[in-house]
Amino acid sequence: xxxxxxxTPTSYIQHHLTFLAKPWGQGDFWTVHVDTVVTxxxxxxxxxxxxxxxxxxxxxxxxxxxxxxxxxxxxxxDSQVKGIxxxxxxxxxxxxxxxxxxxxxxxxxxxLPIDVMAWVYEHVFRLHNWRSVPTADVNxxxxxxxxxxxxxxxxxxxxxxxxxxxxxLFCAPFGGNPLLWPFNLLFNLVxxxxxxxxxxxxxxxxxxxxxxxxxxxxxxxxxxxxGALFGGVLHLGWAIFHILIVALQAYIFMMLTIVYIAMAHxxx
Length: 268
What we know:
two-stranded antiparallel ribbon, 2 strands, single chain
């Protein structure tokens, strides 16, 4: 917090929930959350750069611990893809691996101590507002979900053709009678729009709630010695439980990505 500013629970939470936003054109719609974009780029470069270095040094002999870990992650994702997707595309497994690794690492930013990082951002980088968890920003989760949605539409058109895809919009699931076309279109639009909404909001809601709980526990720890001890125990317990949430949400996001692409390859 800035010097001379009275710290209250409301101001504490508002400070940690404020983005470093910069206008991009006219209106609030074009405001860019710089902290979200920069953190996502840095995390992406680091984690995929690490994977690239490991694969560059991979050997066919006895693997190192790092290579064995990366191979286990790849085999795990590949087995999940093979269990759901049976189409001809060879890009689905790499897409699933990319999605899982990126979302997992972005979620893991929530493990950084929020007050320590806020001090570092403000006193080292001179940034008064900076949020460290990109997936706690609905713009990030919507961008990821819309990318998956775009691939789903692309594969649907690629498999059935543009005419076949339009035919499905108007003639499924209630039949091809022209009187039923409006109902079929409405039904399909609801189905299509619900996918990116549920895909993005599930991840955003869980990560945002986790961030809020960490803040509330931090406020509790600031109430005194007893509060600090009790809050520290709760904070540790929630951090351990949050490991499961971070990994589970990345896994669910990846699985839904595979499912949506697999559904696009189905012939009707």
